[in-house]
Amino acid sequence: MFKTLMIALAGLGFSTLASSASLVEGQHYEMLPESIDTSVAEDQIEVREVFWYGCPHCYNLEDPLNAWVAEQPEDVAFLRMPATMGGDWNKHAIAFYAAQELGILDAIHDDFFHAIHENGRGLTEVDDVAEFFSDYDVSEDEARQALKSFGVRNLVNQAHNRMRTMQLRGVPALVVDGRYLVSPSSAGSLENMPQIAGALVEKVREERAD
Q1: What global pTM score does this model have?
Q2: What's the average model confidence in pLDDT over 14-20?
């Protein structure tokens, strides 16, 4: 099984960097081997988080990432994509897209993470996830239908195709404009990841202005 990326012990001090001009490819970020299609309007810049609900580093990234997202202007579109690396990863991806289909994703996302990492719940079996979802104004039957639906399976397959294109070695990861990859190791710490993503957003703005 793929393993989550470990946080580098020595931070790169990116908070001292002022702009995209300070970015160094191979040090602060990497280029994806092949770009992925973005899912936002042409005048927006996509920042895609790739994560796994079972990953402790992904869980610890949530607070600094959410704080960063809340400060972004309208031209930045933030998306989440669950990683599909087999086993429980795929089961959690199904739960993510089922919650999206049911219209409860925003309500359950943080709580789902919390239930796994603070309460020790696996949330990999259909019945367990359906019971969890039933606290968010959907019935267990509705949850089971969503978890087993063709539409959800199709979305998981689409995510898996993107995973194959990106050739990610682990999570969490931030992908800017379908091209630029930020990982804990390239950022030096989880806390630095949103800051480097922000500098890459600036880089994309400059590229588009040329």
Answers
A1: 0.90
A2: 52
